[in-house]
Amino acid sequence: MGYKVVVVGATGNVGREMLNILAEREFPVDEIVALASRKSLGTEVSFGDKTLTTKDLDTFDFTGWDMALFAVGSEATKKYAPKAAEAGCVVIDNSSLYRYDPEIPLIVPEVNPDAIEMYSNKNIIANPNCSTAQMVVALKPLHDRAKIKRVVVSTYQSVSGSGKDAIDELWNQTKGMYVPGQEVAPSVYPKQIAFNVIPHIDVFMDSGDTKEEWKMIAETKKIVDPSIKVTATCVRVPVFVGHSESINIEFEDFLDEDEAREILRTAPGILVVDKREDGGYVTPVECVGDFATFISRIRQDVTIENGLNLWCVSDNLRKGAALNAVQIAELLGRRVLKKG
Ligand SMILES: NC(=O)c1ccc[n+]([C@@H]2O[C@H](COP(=O)([O-])OP(=O)(O)OC[C@H]3O[C@@H](n4cnc5c(N)ncnc54)[C@H](OP(=O)(O)O)[C@@H]3O)[C@@H](O)[C@H]2O)c1
User: What is the pTM of this model?
Assistant: First the structure.
């Protein structure tokens, strides 16, 4: 016996990847339904070698369904996730709506799987922000060995992190640069994204940080350890899929770069590609469609007592969203629901 699974936001980037990954990982599904807004009613989406026809979220009854993987914005989540949870269907949510609620677990299965026990507080589990998910997979095994004091991270985030309209904006703006009269003005982003970089993701906060930067700080504390200090600069770059991060870590204890490399090589969810030669590192185009978080450029930071630098790349639609949500579904199945 398997699970009755709902995918909410099935026509979006993350929703489509959720369906792909559920099929790829042979998640034990008895029945699956794809939901989106009324305007997408009848749109066909793939689930392995099957085709699903999307239904309207607004009229859907969650009663009798085991779990719902939500990949819609916070507003739609606020309206529909409580309906699902109250009907007894466990929500695994990709939006930021519930991440900071102390009663709701925020889970990266390689890092804090035991937090799953809290799911029953509200029948909701939160999935972290894409840039946090890949970073904490790398931080956790190093923290266990040498205790992290402080992290300085700069991100290079792809446009797929802002949804399907952003992918179109980069594509059309890039083409438009070469065709006089077909220039495309910024719409999703505040400035031109084609052939440019934008040091601004999500809204500005009073502190001067953006909300994306704040999310990385708050979520790392909630998932790994509240004592870790994080400072972040989040930057949008003209890459379609794959987020990259330059991470500088200060530890309490000394951690040699070779030992760090060995720790990361055996850590769950990580692939180390770190040769000190041309091309001996991973770039975003190479990580697309992969499950792993790739770590390269591991090296000592000799400007501080116990410092290390590394380069971290992952498919933001996978580890940053859909894969992590499916891993949470697997964890929920294994530890709690125990079907399949
Ligand atoms: N992309 C990432 O890297 C990433 C990472 C982590 C978290 N997330 C989060 O995941 C969520 C989805 O992101 P995305 O990139 O997949 O966005 P997207 O490509 O723009 O897709 C949005 C999906 O939500 C549906 N939707 C929106 N409003 C709805 C409503 N009122 N009722 C029913 N369906 C509605 C859309 O359906 P229609 O097609 O019918 O409009 C579509 O299926 C967001 O909360 C985002 O913040 C994204």
Answer: 0.96
CA–centroid distance for 166 within its chain = 17
Reduced to 3 states (helix: H, G, I; strand: E, B; else coil), residue 288 is coil
Could you give the residue numbers annotated as active site?
130, 243
Position in ligand 1 atom list of the atom nearest CA 163: 15
Per-residue pLDDT tens digits for 300-315? 999 999 999 999 999 9
Instruction: Specify the pLDDT at position 142.
Output: 98
Reference 107, options 286, 300, 316, 330; nearest CA is 330
Burial 237-260 (b: 16+ CB within 10 A, else e): bbbebbbbbebbbbbeeebeeeeb
The answer to whether the CB of 71 is under 6 A from ligand 1 is: yes
Which amino acid appears at position 113 of this protein? P
d(C-alpha 168, C-alpha 246), whole Å: 27
How confident is the model at residue 240, as a pLDDT?
98
